[in-house]
């Protein structure tokens, strides 16, 4: 479409973080924002899973280290669908993480209702990306 990679911010939420991480692991972009991300499908279904199986169609944990763009992670600490530990694990594997937003007390479907959500997004897009 003729859009320069530095003009694109890839944003994924929940299961939408899977195509976002896949895309960002293969192409440059200005940044990646992962909202309530999962490490892998198997790790959501079976929390004690320690490795990625070939049939796991959602292997964010294996692809996140290939993302070269700045990555902002946002996750509620009381997420009842995708445990907060998923956000932490992905953050630890990022090449270029920025200050994450861990929303204290937020669940899976209400992070954006907290004031710090919009504030963090504005800060990241308007100020941090400009200076990276």
UniProtKB/TrEMBL annotation:
<dbReference type="InterPro" id="IPR001375">
    <property type="entry name" value="Peptidase_S9_cat"/>
</dbReference>
<dbReference type="Pfam" id="PF00326">
    <property type="entry name" value="Peptidase_S9"/>
</dbReference>
<protein>
    <submittedName>
        <fullName>Alpha/beta hydrolase domain-containing protein 17B</fullName>
    </submittedName>
</protein>
<feature type="domain" description="Peptidase S9 prolyl oligopeptidase catalytic">
    <location>
        <begin position="47"/>
        <end position="108"/>
    </location>
</feature>
<keyword id="KW-0378">Hydrolase</keyword>
<dbReference type="InterPro" id="IPR029058">
    <property type="entry name" value="AB_hydrolase_fold"/>
</dbReference>
<dbReference type="GO" id="GO:0016787">
    <property type="term" value="F:hydrolase activity"/>
</dbReference>
